[in-house]
């Protein structure tokens, strides 16, 4: 049922009780499987979006690569924005998560096969739209596992397990993409197969208690339900904060390959893809360290906003490094600082947002709405980034990314129910 003015938002204590009741006995080994599931997802996102897709577009349209990458990434992210909350609502209605995880994971294979087979910007855009659609079906379901099955007292640890999937998945994705940089079709297929294999593993080894299925809702009712979710004060500010952080992050990271090609002074003989294959693991190791410390520590001190604020501020300051030192050494230092900052963010942000969901029984739908804050900025980021690069070069892009990260930190201050 959608929230309305006559339906009071449950108190945090009521949400916590509901979440604990649903997740007080999580499946044995659930956290390692969440880690594996998210690692596979980010391997595909980073390997495709960060390496293979830019290289493919550069090969097709070398003189318009910045604009064309922005167009393809932006249009495809529309599909991510639409499919994530819709898929979340559908899994809420079915009372299941595993079938959606399995279906989205298996469909990644034909989507990646199609992407590797096309040779025009238009067809690349269409194929990546389909890839974004199926991956966000997968993402919406697996994201909802934490509020479904993990008690509130372990949310920080569970969020850390999910967050570790970002650096580990990024390393895997970059290594696969770099290894197949001259063979797009094979690289795409390998990444799709990784997601499919992990989806089979996850759904085979985790048992879920089927929740009562929800009554079908019309499209208009679903749209109103999504809008009503954002009427909840704390949920709305969590949405805004995440959207700003993601916009700043993807505005910079989405163009990393072109930054290395056109802006950074690389050592003699080092290619941009080779540099990316070094920088990504460096950043990922820093993220792992930060996640391992910040996730459990946020549980211990029972503070979430503090860690998100620190991480966003640090990421804002990190962009000053490549601006003042556009060298490979500068990018290495930037990767370390940015990795530490976003590791802290990924470790605790998932825990924070699960504590401000408007209704426990609509967890997947509301997490899907919140995931629009992940996908939505990716629609805007490529267009904004291409304009910024054209207007003021990559330094302006870095500066804008840092400013957005700081604004994201300020946006979480109004949240009342979480410390």
From TrEMBL:
Entry keywords, A to Z: Membrane, Transmembrane, Transmembrane helix
Alphabetical list of PANTHER family matching this protein: MAJOR FACILITATOR SUPERFAMILY (MFS) PROFILE DOMAIN-CONTAINING PROTEIN, PTHR23528
Chain intervals for the UniProt region annotation (Disordered): 1-25
Taxonomic source organism: Streptacidiphilus jiangxiensis
Membrane topology: Multi-pass membrane protein
Transmembrane intervals: 33-55, 67-87, 107-130, 158-180, 186-205, 239-258, 270-294, 306-325, 331-357, 369-388, 394-412
InterPro entries in the record: MFS (IPR011701), MFS_dom (IPR020846), MFS_trans_sf (IPR036259)
Domain Major facilitator superfamily (MFS) profile: 31-419
Record's keyword annotation contains Transmembrane helix: yes
Subcellular location: Cell membrane
Lineage: Bacteria, Bacillati, Actinomycetota, Actinomycetes, Kitasatosporales
GO cellular component, one term: plasma membrane
Pfam families given in the database record: MFS_1 (PF07690)
Presence of the UniProt keyword Cell membrane in the record: no
Gene Ontology MF terms in the entry: transmembrane transporter activity
Protein name in the entry: Major Facilitator Superfamily protein
Principal localisation: membrane
